[in-house]
Amino acid sequence: MKILAIESSCDETAAAVVEDGRKIISSVVATQIESHKIFGGVVPEIASRMHIEAICAVVSEAMEKANLDYSQLDAIAVTYSPGLIGALLVGVNFAKGLSLSTGLPLIPVHHLRGHIASNYLTYPELEPPFMCLVVSGGHSHIVTVDDYTSFKIIGKTRDDAAGECLDKAARAMGIPYPGGVNLDKIAVNGNDMAFSLPHPRVEGSEYDFSFSGLKTAVINLIHNAQQKGEAINREDLCASYLKAVTDCLCDNTVRAMKEFGFKKLALAGGVSANSVLRRKMTYLAKENDWKLFLPELSLCGDNAAMIGSQAYYEFLNSNIADENLNAYATMPIDNSVF
């Protein structure tokens, strides 16, 4: 089964053709990073306009690289939630138009389900059930994947997501956008024990995360040093901060894995590309005799191939939409209502 998938939830316009949920036939991603860099983050209105400008060319390129025409496809898939509402609407409406004009079924895909499915493309042998830590700029979740379309949220952030926490701290340190990626590069040369930073916990919810206090702590540390005219070793601060964030992610995930008795652990989302997180999880998986699944770096960020992968399983579960499909800025991963 060949599916053309479209992704436009944030600042990447992407299209891909995926076969049977496991094989990438083509994948095209047009990023907007350079356009948003001068603002230090994604500007929703600009993102939406750039999706409109890019989507026709991106979809056409994906079809050309796949060497297919629409008569050889079996379905159209699109990210419909969660994300920036204006950006999502560009992809959803384009996909609805394609579905109407070609007569192909339309498959709505939850963005976070897509991130988890990036592991199916990297590891064709991976099958549920397993536990997944989903970490990105907007989300931090511990999820059990009980089946391809059956998910349960075990823990999630109560405030900032891990990726947002990294980006905002990076901005305070004067690190250019995209902050989390550049912070990771700088931290390589730092001492992660140089600064003592908090490891927030959510009382009564041992699997939930809270990153706002950690973010505030490092911003206050920077401002206090600036007011006193003191220099801060940026490499050491980046390394110490990254250690605190990844410690929180790993600690909760380890507890959840042990409590629920899983032996397979996957990572997903943009922050799953972080070198410190990948290294720590690799060590913890070996220590606990777990099988660890890490998506290819090219599949960690937003892309349409992961949407095409998950769409295959949504289709098998009869999750098909019609011309009334809408976009939603927020929606839990365990909610398939569209």
Structure described in brief:
It is built from ten helices and ten strands.
- Rg, nearest Å: 20 Å
The portion of residues forming beta strands comes to: 15-25%
Work out the oligomeric state of the chains in this entry: single chain
What is the average of the pLDDT values? 96
Give the biggest sheet.
5 strands, mixed
What is the number of strand segments? 10
- N/C terminus separation: 23 Å
Global shape: globular
Q: Structural class, from secondary structure content?
A: alpha/beta
CATH architecture term of the largest domain: 2-Layer Sandwich
Number of helices: 10
The helix content, as a percent range, equals: 40-55%
Unreliable runs, pLDDT <50, ≥5 residues?
none
What does this structure look like?
The chain has helices spanning 33-37, 44-66, 85-102, 111-122, 162-172, 179-187, 212-228, 234-260, 275-288, 305-316, and strands at 2-7, 12-19, 23-31, 75-81, 106-110, 130-135, 140-147, 150-156, 264-268, 291-293. It is α/β, with parallel strands linked by helices and 338 residues long. Helix 5 packs parallel to helix 7 (212-228). The chain folds into 2 domains: 2-116 and 299-316, ATPase, nucleotide binding domain (Nucleotidyltransferase, domain 5, 2-Layer Sandwich); 128-295, Nucleotidyltransferase, domain 5, CATH 3.30.420. It is 44% helix and 19% strand. A hairpin with a 3-residue loop joins strand 2 (12-19) and strand 3.
